[in-house]
Amino acid sequence: MAIADIPEYAHLTGADVEALGAELDAIRADIEADRGERDARYLRNTIRLQRGLEFTGRMLTMGASRRSLWWAGAGTLGVAKIIENMELGHNVMHGQWDWMNDPEVHSTSWEWDNTGPSAHWKHTHNYIHHKYTNVLGMDDDVGYGLLRVTRDQRWRPFYLGNIAYNTLLAVFFEYGVAAQHLELGKKRKTPEAKAALKRDLADVGRKIGRQVGKDYVLAPAISGVLNRSSRAARKTAGANLLANVIRNLWTNAVIFCGHFPDGAEKFTKADMDNETQGQWYLRQMLGSANFRCGPTLAFMSGNLSYQIEHHLFPDLPSNRLAEISVRVRALCEKYDLPYTTGSFPVQYAKSWRTIAKLSLPNKYLKDTADDAPETASERRFRADGEPRLVSSVDQRTGRRRGLKSAIADNRERRRERASA
Amino acid sequence: MSWRERFEAPVAGVAGSKATNWVRAAAARITTPLLPDDYLHLLNPLWSARELRGKVVAVTPVTADSATIVIEPGWGFSFDYHPGQYIGIGVLVEGRWTWRSYSLTSEPAGSAAERTVAITVKAMPEGFLSSHLVNGLKPGTVVRLAAPAGEFVLPDPPPAKLLFATAGSGVTPIISMLRTMARRGGRVDAVLVHSAPDEDSVLFVDELRRFAADGLIDLRLRLTGVDGRLDAASLDELVPDWGDRQTWACGPGGFIDMLGGMFDDRGIRSRLHVERFALERGAAGAQGGTVTFGRGGKKIEADGAQTLLEAGEEAGVLMPFGCRMGICQSCVVMLDKGCVRDLRTGVEHVEGERVQTCVTAAAGDCTLDV
Ligand code: FES
C-alpha cells in the first residue's frame, strides 16, 4: 500500500506540518523578494548559449558526410536540445521566469523543441503531475501509463516487458511526452470528449509534423543542396536523429531520477481533497528524489538534480534551487525527515532496478507493498503492533524523532531479525 | 484551413509587411518552434518584429521634472498612428520589464520621415517608473513597445469650433494634435485651456506661445498657484462658449470628472472626448474593486480576499484554470488595466503584466483580458 495518512507516516502532528509549511513559505518569500538583475542575466546568458550551440550544431551537421563532423554536429545539437528542453523549456513553462514580465520568455508563450505541444505539456506536467505528485491513479507520470513502477499497480502479464518498454520509452521519450496528454488508454463516450481528442490529436500531429519536417526533411535537404550530394542529406538526417535520441535518453534519465529511485514515495487518493498547503509540501518532499551534482550536471539537468526543491517551489527560478536546497536540507534535519539523494548513476540504476523487479508478479518479490524500496505506507511501522505513530521529541537530545529515525530503527530491527 | 493560412500560421500575430512575413514564415520552417527573429534579435535587439522594440536615441529635459524621450522603433513598427494616441513602453528595471502607457508627443508625418517617435514623461512623486524614465534613462537603451492605440484622436479635418482642456501633463496628447494641425496649415477656431501650478511647470510653454502667436490656438493658461484651481465657474468665464465646441480633454481624474459634470448638465456629453491618466499604481493598499472581463465585458464586484478566478467564475466567465493553488500557470491572463494583489506574498501587479488569477485578488478596479 502507498501512503494514505501523510502526517502520520512522517511522524508529525498537524501543528508540525503547518509549522513546516510556514518555514517553506518563508523560503519562497525570501527568494521572491531577492529575484532581480542577476537572475535575469543568468537566463539571458542561458538563452544565448543555447541558441549559439543550436546554430553551431546545425552548421556542423551540414557537413555530416565527414565522420568527425557527424559526431560533433550530433553531439552539439544534442546538448543544445537538452538545454532547450530542460533549463529553458521546462523551467520557463513552469513560470519560473514570468516575474521578468518578458513576453518572449513567459510560460504563456513559450513553445519548446519537442514533439509534445507546450500547451498539452503544461496541463499534464504543471497541473496534473505537480499538483498530484506520485498519487496513484491521479499522476500520469507514475509509470506513464506504460510501466509498472510500484507494487500497488496490479501485475498483468503485459508487465513482463517492463524493461523493454522502458528502453523504448527512453529512446523515443519525446513521443511519449507528445502522447501523454492524449490519454489514449481512456474510453471516450461523450461527443465533447471525442471532439476534444480530435483537436488534441490535430495539435500533436501538427507539432510532430513541424519537428520532423525540420530535423529530417528540411535540414537534410539544405545539406544535400549545399553539398550537392544525397549522401550528405542522409548523413545530416542521421546526425539529427542521434541528437534527438541523445536528448531523449538524457531527459528521461533525469526525470526518472526524480521520482523513481528508492525512497521516493507514492500516495493514495485518500485525503487529497482537503489537503492543506503544509501537507502538500510534505508530500512533495517525500515523493521526490535528488541526485548529487556539480554546477555542470545541475545545469544540464535543468537543475532537476534539485527535484525536491523544484517540487516544493515549481515556479521559483532554477538557478536558485541550489541555495534553496541548503535550507530545505536543514528543515529535513529539524523535522527528522528523509532527504532522498544519491549519485546520479546510483539513483538512475535504482529506478531501473525497480522497473526490472516489478516486471514480475508480487509473489516473486521479497518485500511487501507496505515496506518496499519504491513504495511504503504508514503500515510499515505498525508491524510490531503499535497502534499509531506519534510525533515525539527525544528527552535526552531535544531532537524531534520522526520518519528518518523510524526508518533507521526499522532497518536495524530487520537486520537483527535476519541475523537471529 | 487553406494552404495559405497554414503557411502563414507561424507568423500569425507578428507585425510586418506581407512580403517580409512570407520570408519569415518560410524561414520559420527550419527555426521552428522559434522564428528567425528570435535568433536575429540576439545580433541586434531591433531585428525582431515578433515583439516590437525600440532604442532610445535622446532624452531631452522639457521642464525640471519632465523629459521628452525619442525612440527609434525596430522592425514591424508602423508609423501611421494618429495624433492623440499612446504607446505602451516597457523598460528593464532590475531584471523586470515594467510597462506603462504614454501619449505620443511626436507628429506622425515627422515621425515617419525621421523613423522615430517621441513621448514626454513627467516624473510623478510616487511614480517609480516615470522618475526612472526622466532621470535614469540613457540613450542607447533598448525598450519594448506596444503598437500605438487609443480612441482619443482628432478627426481630419478637425471640427470648426474646438476646445482643448488640459491639466498638468494632460497636454501631452494635445501637443501632437497641435503639431499636426500646424503642419497641415488649415485654421479652425481652437481654444486651449491649460492648467498648471506655475509658468515653469507648463510643458512645451514656448511652443504653445508660438502656436498662439501664429493664430493656431487661442491660449488661456490657468496658473493654479496664482489663480486657484480651475473649476466649472472659472471655465465658464475663460471660455463662455465652451458648450458650442467639440472638446478634447486630458488630465487627472478629478479634472475630467469636473468637465464631465458640466457637459452632462447641459446634456451635450457627446461633445466631450476624454483621456484619463493611467494610474501609476492602484490606489495604494486598496482592497477589492470592480473586476471587468474585457472580452465579454462582464463585470463583478470582488473583495480583497476573493481570487480573480473565483470572481470570474461567479460572473459566469469561462476562466482558464488548472491547479487552483498557484503552481501550474494555467490560469495566467493579461491585466489590461488596474492593479491586483498576490494573496500569497502581497506583491502588487499593474497593467501590462500577466497574472495568475487563482492566487491574485483585485486591488482596486481592474480589467482582465479574458
Ligand atoms: S490554476 Fe494553477 S496556477 Fe492558477
TrEMBL record, chain A:
Fatty acid desaturase domain location: 70-341
Protein name from the UniProt record: Linoleoyl-CoA desaturase
Annotated transmembrane regions: none
Keywords: Oxidoreductase
Protein species of origin: Gordonia humi
Region (Disordered), start-end ranges: 367-420
CDD domains xrefs: Delta6-FADS-like
CC terms in the record's Gene Ontology section: membrane
UniProt feature, compositional bias: Basic and acidic residues: 376-387, 409-420
Source species, domain of life: Bacteria
Gene Ontology terms for molecular function: acyl-CoA 6-desaturase activity
Any one Gene Ontology BP term: lipid biosynthetic process
EC number(s) from the headed UniProt entry: 1.14.19.3
From TrEMBL, chain B:
GO MF, one example: oxidoreductase activity
Keyword Flavoprotein in annotation: yes
Entry cofactors: FAD
Alphabetized UniProt keyword annotations: 2Fe-2S, FAD, Flavoprotein, Iron, Iron-sulfur, Metal-binding, Oxidoreductase
Keyword Oxidoreductase among UniProt keywords: yes
FAD-binding FR-type domain ranges (all copies): 49-155
Domain of life: Bacteria
Pfam families in UniProt: FAD_binding_6, Fer2, NAD_binding_1
Boundaries of every 2Fe-2S ferredoxin-type domain copy: 289-370
InterPro entries (UniProt xref): 2Fe-2S_ferredoxin-like_sf, 2Fe-2S_ferredoxin-type, Beta-grasp_dom_sf, Cbr1-like_FAD-bd_dom, FAD-bd_FR_type, Flavoprot_Pyr_Nucl_cyt_Rdtase, FNR_nucleotide-bd, MRET
Protein name listed in UniProt: Ferredoxin-NADP reductase
Protein species of origin: Gordonia humi
Lineage, highest ranks first: Bacteria, Bacillati, Actinomycetota, Actinomycetes, Mycobacteriales
